[in-house]
Amino acid sequence: MPNIEILSDRAAPLAAPLAAPGRIGHRRLLRQLLQYAAVAALAVASYFVASRCILQTVTVVGVSMVPTLRNADRYLLNRWILYLRTPHPGEVVVLRDPSANCLAVKRVVGLPGDFVFLRDGKVFVNGRKLREPYLPAGTPTFPYSRVKEQGFKCGEEQFFVLGDNRNNSMDSRAYGPVPREKIVGTIIY
Fold it and tell me: Which of the following is catalytic: 64, 145, 148, 169?
């Protein structure tokens, strides 16, 4: 005869109450939807942080940087690099134009403490003629005003900027050295 075990109520293991089959599915679905929403929110936030603080695409409008940058061409603006260091001489930067209160693209020529002097179509920085391999040979740089010579002293945290198209650029020759806080980032080209 087979041995049969009978458990009394006291010896029976505690069983979890059974949940309705539909209730577990709704909780799992709700949890997954919340996870998807969190991932989407993080992706959108990451995009906005990256595009506003790290890299951003920009389109050049105008000819002030010809031949280096051309009208309607697209470039990357590196905003992050200037959190780590100051702009370098010869670097192409985007700045808030002091005269027009818009964004402009220019080349850094003078650093804080530098003296920039324009004479006979040439640029001198701290008494030395500026070497500009990015310009076509013989490109003159004249003062913006009708004077023959013009000098600028860059103060603390100020930068002297010029457009590469020297005959068609509103730059530091017109509005003077630019404060550091007006420089947004550097152009990657």
Answer: 64
Task: Verify that 47 and 127 share a domain, yes or no.
Answer: no
Tell me if 75 is assigned to some domain. yes
Low-confidence spans in the chain with pLDDT less than 50: 6-8, 12
Concerning whether 148 is annotated as a catalytic residue, the answer is no
Cα torsion 158, 141, 124, 187 to 10°: value is 40
| pLDDT tens digit sequence for 112-121 | 999 999 999 9
Q: Are 168 and 69 in contact (CB under 8 A)?
A: no
- Residue 23 confidence (pLDDT): 64
Residue linked to tokens 């003159």: 140
What single DSSP character describes residue 20? P
Task: Count CB neighbours of 118 within 10 A.
Answer: 23
- For residues 41 and 125, state if they share a domain: no
Q: Is 99 a catalytic residue?
A: no
Same domain membership, residue 130 and residue 100:
yes
Q: Please state the domain count of the chain.
A: 2
Rounded Cα distance between 64 and 68, Å, is 9
Report how far apart the first and last C-alpha atoms of the chain are (Å, whole number). Answer: 91
What residues make up the domain containing 34?
Answer: 21-55
Active-site residue (options: 8, 46, 106, 153): 106
pLDDT 10s digits, 123-135: 999 999 999 999 9
